[in-house]
């Protein structure tokens, strides 16, 4: 039995807000701060800061898109169920003529 995409999206979003991941991002924040406060950073350190900011920006966009997807999917499901219920109520059966 496969899990539907909306369930996987919800699980992913819950994982983003887990305690373990928050700890990881706290360490990442500490790394950014120490690299940014370095007087004479190496080129790789500058690249790391750039990569980290790029990663965080893309992660925020991904989270936003998954949130939208989850809400849209939930609304679509609700609309489908509402339509189905209305069809059953109006003509007494599921199938349209």
Structure overview:
- With about 100 residues, this protein is mainly α.
- The chain has one domain.
- The protein has three helices and no strands.
- It has helices at about 5-15, 20-35, 45-90.
- α1 (about 5-15) crosses α3 and α2 (about 20-35) runs antiparallel to α3.
- It is elongated and about 50 Å long.
- Residues about 95 have low confidence and may be disordered.
Task: Indicate the topology.
Layout: H1 5-16, H2 19-36, H3 43-91
Helix pairs in contact: 1-3, 2-3
Feature tags:
81% helix, disordered C terminus, mainly alpha, 97 residues
- The termini sit apart by 33 Å
> How does the helix and strand content classify structurally?
mainly alpha
Order of helices and strands: HHH
Number of DSSP helical runs: 3
Summarize the structure.
The chain is an all-alpha fold and 97 residues long.
